[in-house]
Amino acid sequence: MLDNLNSNFESSKAQRPDANDDEVEIDLLEIFYALKKKILLVLMVALVGGCIAAAYTQFLMTPIYSSTSSILVLSKETTLTSLADLQLGASLTSDYTVLITSTPVMEQVISDLDLDMTAEQLKESVSINNPTDTRILEITVNNTDSKMAKKIVDEIANVSSSYIGDKMEVIPPKIIEVGKIATVRTSPSVKKNAALGFLLGFLACAAIVVVYAVMDDTIKTEDDIEKYLGMTTLAVLPYNGKKQQRQAKKQKKQRAKQGKQTSRKRKEIETDEFN
Known about the structure:
Radius of gyration: 39 Å
Oligomer: single chain
Strand order of the largest sheet: 2-3-1-4
Order of helices and strands: HHHEHHHEEHEHHH
Number of strands: 4
Structural class: alpha+beta
Number of helices: 10
Number of domains: 2
CATH class of the largest domain: Alpha Beta
Largest sheet: 4 strands, antiparallel
Low-confidence stretches: 12-24
Distance between the termini: 54 Å
Shape: elongated
CATH topology of the largest domain: Alpha-Beta Plaits
């Protein structure tokens, strides 16, 4: 009966040339139930996406390690507490930030450590941070080798300290903390990428479910008959698809069995007549 109603629905659409076939009515409640029905599938796809992202990050992406060295900006060698010294030291941090990553300093570090990179490439791996209301500069170097990251950041601190003292004719910055060999990667983050993979998998699968629910215009209930065909439902016949399929398979087996029995009897009759 539902197949006949679907056929009537298609024919009714064909008989209305003024209808807008591209218009799709979105039922939010229907979308909600569609997502609720497929929520286990959506979560499974999201979980698979998270696992794939985590595995790719852990085993295929190159890890990056960081090492940080800190230097203290000095204005005078004997006093560090006067207001004038503090103000001057704070203003010098901006100049030092530029000088630390200057080309002469980068080239000197490359020469001292015999690095296979240009000054610009080394500069891209260096970042400098000045904590608020302090005269401390934190120099951080990122590298795929944790030991090399420590060597580079320590060398930058030493070379830049001497370079600043020589060029600006001031007291060289004091190194208050040397770099450490990192044991944990800085990036990429396995947890962050796993969460991103989970989210993308969830959204992708949910989007497919929503699109399927919106584009599915088959008639399933009495409300659909009135909604799409504008017809009133007079009666409803119970339909159990699985049960009818089992009955159809059973009847098919019975007919096949009867056919075999009939064929066997015919052969027996033909054999008796021949004898």
